[in-house]
Design brief:
heterodimer, A: mainly alpha, Cytochrome C Oxidase, Chain A, 16 helices, 77% helix, B: mainly alpha, Cytochrome Bc1 Complex, Chain D, domain 2, 2 domains, two-stranded antiparallel sheet, 7 helices, 4 strands, transmembrane (chain A), respiratory chain (chain A)
């Protein structure tokens, strides 16, 4: 179990670093030159994205492994987790080395030298064996087992696909390659979400004490709907790319099935509100609930962006970033924080800590909302610029946004400090817990 | 009725396998796309376009610039930069080597610069990323204006 705690600490540290690099990168928009900040922008952006996203992936894996320790008292292959962690350490060190030495042989979101993808792939293979060895001891799987299994399998498949561009056959066809690149970027998010949503469902069953909810047909229906979307809805990223119309239409139709999930969330709203009041002072539950509210907001935004006619106005603008921030911070990070609080923080906190955490919790939620709102405003402004008088250059358009960019940087910094407070508290608690045990 | 009953007796494993097979078929149909695209395979400049794409990748141009709206937000979309009025090869090379506003000066060799321009020209020929070139249809999709 010690290894799982180290995985969690590693994830929390990466999330902290991801936000720090993100803040430095945001300063390039207004205060620093793209080359003259602490680090150049083209180094900071990959550092920000990789730290944050690998933090989310490792956090998800840490949550799942901690849950498995809880479910199976005699967990099999638990020693394999050490190799899993070691492979992650090797790859993250390699990725950082790659960025600091400006060895950008990869591409967007995966800019590091492809050699460092190998330990990541192997770590997932090991994790797949680890979970299968344990999950296969049970015949009737709850839906969250399926979600974890799906998350790992699809991550492996899509991760391999992510490196097809190495072969000239794929690399030489610009549009097919661009299509595959965004198939990967879209699907990989879906795979990681399967891991995290599965863990969120597991947490809900633990907190409510109702293990049956994960075996219900509706739980499976929602799981398969999520899987269906993971497989076929990524095309909304490339509506503008002149690829096959079939991909665009399929994605449009499949994306619209997510209205079912959205409507279900609205129907369940009242029940959730009364539950929220019941468990309000239990931090793991509160973070899970926060993630569910962010799911509703982001899903609504995603549904709008998946309509090609709307997408035409929002594509390539900060509205897409708003959606990405809502998903990574609002949903993914909230679930990881719920897991971290559940496994690391003591259930009973002293008054001062409770008040501090309570303040930080609400600061994070409100700052994130404002941050997303500012990104949406920036996106709307860019869209208006794209559709208006073409004599205004991109540079002039950027200059016209100077005030709102400052607001964006300040809000981002405040969000970073608030989240850092929570992450550092959890980090400290994880070491206290270790010394007690 | 028996069909309905049979449907409900489906195990999650069966649904998972069915969906996965469909996903694999869909994925492999995409992998065959370059094979079907004979025009591109016969392109004499293909090597330089690929080399230019590598220059784009190695210098992390996408952290600031976009292609078809995909990429960073600090600089403009460059899908059709080569067809914009006044954007000659010399002008683009000058911008890359001297830098402008937020954009730093890049120390690229003549070959790298030429390859990068081949890539930008090839990208330009694939289509238009200007949203005003498209018209919205009644079913919520959009197509190129005729």
């Amino acid at each position: 179990m010690k290894t799982s705690y180290w995985l969690m600490r590693f994830a929390l540290a990466l999330l902290l670093l991801g936000m720090f690099f993100g803040h430095l990168a945001s300063e390039s928009y207004r205060f620093t030159d793209a080359t003259q900040g602490i680090l150049p922008f083209h180094v900071l952006r990959p550092l920000h994205v990789s730290s944050a996203y690998f933090g989310i992936i490792i956090g998800g894996l840490a949550c799942v492994s901690l849950a498995l320790f809880e479910i199976f008292p005699n967990l099999k292959l638990s020693k394999w987790l050490k190799i899993h962690l070691l492979l992650w350490l090797i790859s993250i060190c390699g990725i950082f080395y790659s960025y600091f030495t400006k060895d950008f042989s990869g591409r967007e979101y995966w800019e590091f030298n492809p050699i460092w993808a190998l330990p990541i792939f192997l770590s997932f293979v090991i994790f797949l064996f680890f979970i299968l060895k344990n999950l296969l001891t049970e015949k009737k799987w709850p839906s969250y087992y399926w979600m974890w299994f799906t998350g790992i399998v699809f991550f492996l498949f899509v991760f391999l696909e992510n490196y097809l561009w190495i072969f000239p056959y794929f690399k030489n066809d610009l549009i097919s390659d661009l299509t595959l690149q965004w198939k990967v970027n879209g699907s990989i998010v879906g795979a990681v979400n399967q891991l995290l949503y599965g863990f969120s469902l597991y947490m809900m069953t633990k907190i409510s004490g109702n293990s049956e909810m994960a075996h219900k047909k509706i739980a499976f229906a929602l799981y398969f709907l999520g899987l269906f979307n993971l497989m076929f809805n990524w095309g909304h990223h490339i509506y503008l790319v002149p690829t096959s119309r079939f991909i665009h239409h399929l994605s449009y139709i499949v994306s619209m099935t997510e209205w079912i999930i959205f409507i279900k969330i609205i129907i369940d709203w009242k029940k959730q509100l009364s539950e929220s009041k019941k468990y309000y002072y239990f931090f793991p539950y509160r973070f899970i609930m926060a993630s569910e509210y962010w799911v509703a907001i982001n899903l609504f935004l995603a549904l709008l962006l998946s309509i090609p006619a709307v997408n035409l106005f929002t594509h390539g603008t900060h509205i897409t970033v708003a959606h990405a921030m809502g998903t990574t911070i609002g949903i993914n990070m909230m679930i990881i924080l719920a897991g971290a609080f559940y496994y690391i923080a003591p259930p009973l906190l002293n008054k001062l800590t409770r008040i501090t955490l309570n303040t930080l919790f609400w600061l994070v939620q409100s700052l994130l909302f404002l941050f997303i709102l500012v990104l949406v405003i920036m996106g709307v402004k860019k869209s208006i610029w794209q559709f208006s008088d073409s004599s205004i250059t991109f540079s002039q358009h950027q200059d016209s946004l100077s005030f709102i960019i400052v607001v964006f940087i300040v809000l981002g910094a405040l969000l970073f400090f608030s989240l850092a407070g929570i992450l550092l508290f959890l980090m400290q608690q994880s070491f206290i817990k270790k010394s007690k045990s | 009725m028996p069909i309905v009953a049979k449907f409900y007796s489906f195990s999650p494993l069966k649904i998972f396998i069915t969906l996965s097979v469909l996903f694999l078929l869909f994925s492999f149909s995409l992998y065959l796309k370059p094979h079907r695209n004979k025009e591109l395979r016969n392109l004499s400049t293909q090597k330089q376009v690929s080399a230019g794409k590598e220059v784009w990748q190695r210098n992390n141009c996408h952290t600031c610039h976009q292609m078809y709206g995909l990429g960073g937000y600090l600089g403009p979309d460059l899908t059709n930069i080569m067809s914009k009025p006044g954007r000659t090869d010399a002008y683009i090379k000058g911008i890359i080597t001297s830098g402008v506003k937020q954009m730093p000066a890049f120390q690229l060799s003549d070959k790298e610069l030429t390859d990068l321009l081949f890539f930008l020209k090839a990208m330009n020929e694939t289509g238009t990323a200007n949203p005003t070139d498209y018209q919205i249809n009644i079913n919520g999709t959009y197509t190129l204006k005729k």
